Amino acid sequence: MTKTKFKTTASILILLGFALIPYFVLADGWNVGDPPEGLPNVGLEKVILNITNWTLGIVAFLAVLFLVWGGVNYVTAAGNEEQIETAKRIIRYALLGLVVAGISYAAVKVIVDVFIGGKFT
């Protein structure tokens, strides 16, 4: 698979993924035609955790995308040591990104629970 073909395929998959986001977000049955009435009355804790959850979801999606990209590069290396090392580096950094995202989520959760929520669960 040439780089141009791979980039085109990856771009199409990414756009398709973004196109399907409303389908999954609106899966609870909210009717798009009915606008929400005012802002919900939620606390700072809920807002911070919602932002953290969204960010973690995006990071996880990107990490899986990079894992697949690294895997494809590794499989298609055909003995080329430079391409194998590049693929290993992509996989290593994708996994490191997942670990850092998980630690960041845990840190935000603890900070919110202790300082804003007044609890530690």
Low-confidence runs: none
DSSP helix fraction: over 70%
Helix count, DSSP H or I runs of 4 or more residues: 3
Strand content: under 5%
Major sheet summary line: none
Could you say which overall geometry the principal axes of the C-alpha atoms support?
elongated
Q: How many angstroms separate the termini? A: 49 Å
Q: Number of DSSP strands? A: 0
Radius of gyration: 20 Å
Q: Structural class given helices, strands, pairing?
A: mainly alpha
Q: Average pLDDT value?
A: 80
Task: Give the total of domains.
Answer: 1
> What is the ordering of alpha helices and beta strands?
HHH
Task: Give a verbal description of the structure.
The chain is mainly α and 121 residues long. It has one domain. It contains 3 helices and no strands. α2 packs antiparallel against α3.
Keywords:
121 residues; mainly alpha; 3 helices
Reconstruct the topology from this structure.
Blueprint: H1 3-25, H2 44-75, H3 81-117
Helix pairs in contact: 2-3
Q: What's a concise summary of this model?
A:
With 121 residues, the chain is mainly α. The protein is 76% helix and 0% strand. The chain has one domain (3-117).
